[in-house]
Amino acid sequence: MRFSNFGDVQNYLNSLVNYEHEFPLGGKRDRPKLDATYAAADRLALSLAPQNCVHIAGTKGKGSTVAMLEALLSPDFKTLSFTSPHLVSVKERVRLNGGLLSDDIWQCGFEAIVGAIEQTPAIGLTYFEIGFIFFLWAARELKTEVHLVEAGLGGRWDATNVLQNTIAVLTPVDYDHTQILGNTLTEIATDKGGIIKPNAQVVVGKQHDEVSVIYDRIISEQHATLFRYVEHSSFIVHRSSFPDAHSSFILHPSSLLEVFSYQDDSSNIHNLHLPLTGTHQQQNAAVAIRVARLIKPDLAPDTIRNRLEACMIPGRQQFLSGKRDVLLDVAHNPASFAVLAETLRTHYANRRILAVVGMSKDKDARSSLAYLKDLVKDIAVIRLSNPRSYTEPELLAVVEELGFNSVCVQSREEAFMLMHTSSEHDLGLVVGSFYLAGDYLEWRESAGIA
Question: What's the structural domain count of the chain?
Fold first, then answer.
């Protein structure tokens, strides 16, 4: 099959089954096995054990941890990352040193992959699976040195779990995708813990006690090694009193700076700070530091400090300043909404907030939105641009049941424009989904908003 431009790649991808949009057989995985991914990798002679491979699973913090690892390691190593979903372009899913690959590489890769999997017998891959196969192909062709892989859903049966000889990273686990992974934290953690391979190196983020018990058991059974660290409680200082704070890294208007410390078995690192809001990001940073020092043990404290200062993560409590300030967050489950609420309470308690909210039907909208009570003035609900979305009436019923003041809009575009023009509000909040965040960023660019 000929791919003459990147549009051909996108069209091919859009023709595939995409479980991020819907589950054709009603919710459960219809293929709880890795056969197709193994078969495709074998036919293309792709290595399943790329060097310095970090495999990350968890409910929240996976993408942020990958971004921080890119910041910490890409100046020293040719670093290839695989994450999902994307905000605006599928190109965001496979990055080299944090940047997008060229159209030519995508076209060349898909010609090779599709040509191979369409040979008899044909191998049927999903949208997610072929993206991961492209990552493996790019790792070989680009001769990359560090490989960062975010599991898509769960761990044990995720396509990425064909990887071997990995550093296993478990970010915080909470309730999400319960119809697939299970209704208890034990079930969810057991699925995600499936990425821990025999004799693996393992780094575990902050967890509920119930989850820690599961991971300790799996680590023991797999004769793996847990590498520990300590992320100290953060404290807040005025930016003017912190000598290393640089204004170019400030993403929200507060005059306060959150500072934290890190410790592992070889050193203490003090006065760390991020251009990202919230203690959850400090926890993600601690995980990233511990992993980075497994790959590069001589990574110096000053280097870590300076590289984390410059780490930018679109869509994660991203503050966009302008005539109307907007906070953009991909929070989509109760755990991530709880984190967002902490940020709103700490930094934006006196702002009059209009939130534009859209969510997928498989998310617990009621428990999620309840965290915004007394923090958000008004909510405008919209339908997402994918088939799994709550309809406006469905989401509106949840909003009104929780006692929010609802604002009537006819479209996403109208909601975005109202958020920017309403005289009754001084902060916009876009939240509920990666798809909504991506739609807003595209609208913002087309509307010419700097």
Answer: 3
Please say whether the dihedral angle defined by the alpha carbons of residues 389, 392, 397 and 401, taken in this order, is positive or negative.
Answer: positive
Report how far Cα 360 is from the mean position of its chain's Cα atoms: 16
Tokens of 148: 């960062």
The CATH number of residue 119's host domain is 3.40.1190.10
Residue 446 parent element (H or E): helix 434-446
Pairing mode of beta strands 146-150, 53-57: parallel
Q: Looking up tokens 């700076």, which residue turns up?
A: 257
Mean pLDDT within 84-95 = 94
Which one-letter DSSP state was computed for residue 202? E
Tell me, yes or no, whether 1 lies in a domain: no
**Residue 288: inside a domain:** yes
What's the mean pLDDT in 157-185? 86
Q: Are 145 and 139 in contact (CB under 8 A)?
A: no
For residue 262, give the 3-state DSSP assignment. strand
Which residue in this structure is represented by tokens 């990147």? 6
Residue type, 22: E
Q: Are residues 333 and 283 in the same domain?
A: no
Kindly report, residue by residue over 258-271, the tens digit of the pLDDT.
Answer: 788 999 988 889 99
Tell me if the pTM is above 0.90.
no
H or E segment to which residue 220 belongs: helix 209-221
Residues 256 and 189 in one domain: no
